[in-house]
Amino acid sequence: MVEAVETMDGWYSLHDLRSIDWNAWKLATEEERKQAIDSLHKLLDKWEAVEEAKDGSQVLYKVLGQKADLMFMFLRPTMDELSEMETELSKSKMGEFLLPAHSYVSVVELSKYRESKDGIDPETLPETQARLKPILPKWEYICFYPMDRRRQGDENWYTLEKNVRAKMLYEHSKTGRKYAGKVKQIITGSIGLDDWEWGVTLFAHEPLEFKKIVYEMRFDEVSSKYGEFGEFFVGNHLPKEHLRTYLSI
Ligand code: 76R
């Protein structure tokens, strides 16, 4: 019988994408705009304190293109906290100028495909815990997309034996490791949580690295035969200090 792989699951994740209602923003008074920016600053400060205490993490990017304007990625130990963050953003003064654009719910995931060494449960290792509860990099660029493993005819990931899947993922990881220091990836699992099976969040200092890694991986068997991909979102980092300039009109 084909065996599922055991997963290690970390912080819950919400990719929260919003569009700015630029017309409403322009029609608002200077005072209202100031209040709105202040309200977002206040939330970002509050969330930053949570990150400093290592109880969660978040980033904010400006989405390029017409799919959205802002992408928040929130990580928290519970879905309840994510729900609170989503609502406090909507309830804030800034929220009056934000329109929902897209969202994705998942959980940081690592799988136990590799045999554990010396019988040590990898989940107990500090390096595993750090990867399951990552402090998100504040790198210049982000790329986010959802994906599935194919279940069609002879190309069915879910009928492959575990050792066959493990070998393919090992080959995949070798491609990935070539990008060490250039691309940082966070894989989040979303089976049972959202419309696709995984979320892929990549960070880079140079956007061309996204094209290079994703292209190169398309030739790995695990992607060429078994990868199906959703919508891509790319963006530029928006540090708190740049908010006022970004929103000034
Ligand atoms: O422990 C590990 O995480 C290392 C081995 C590894 C696994 C098991 C690994 C390494 N990945 C794994 C699993 Mn990955 N990954 C993707 C994408 O666009 C595409 O074609 C694929 C999108 C990228 C860019 C990427 C990058 N990986 C997975 C899974 C779960 C599969 C399952 O369980 O069926 C998915 C969906 C997925 C997709 N992967 C790496 C990378 C990189 C850069 C690495 C090397 C990380 C490192 O060693 O530092």
TrEMBL record:
The keyword Iron applies. Fe-coproporphyrin III binds at residues 131, 145-149, 172, 185, 223. It comes from the Bacteria. Keywords: Heme, Heme biosynthesis, Iron, Metal-binding, Oxidoreductase, Peroxidase. One of its GO terms (biological process) is heme B biosynthetic process. It holds the Pfam family Chlor_dismutase. The active site is at 145. This is Coproheme decarboxylase. Its cofactor is Fe-coproporphyrin III. Involved in coproporphyrin-dependent heme b biosynthesis. Catalyzes the decarboxylation of Fe-coproporphyrin III (coproheme) to heme b (protoheme IX), the last step of the pathway. The reaction occurs in a stepwise manner with a three-propionate intermediate. One of its GO terms (molecular function) is oxidoreductase activity, acting on the CH-CH group of donors, oxygen as acceptor. It is an enzyme of class 1 (oxidoreductase).
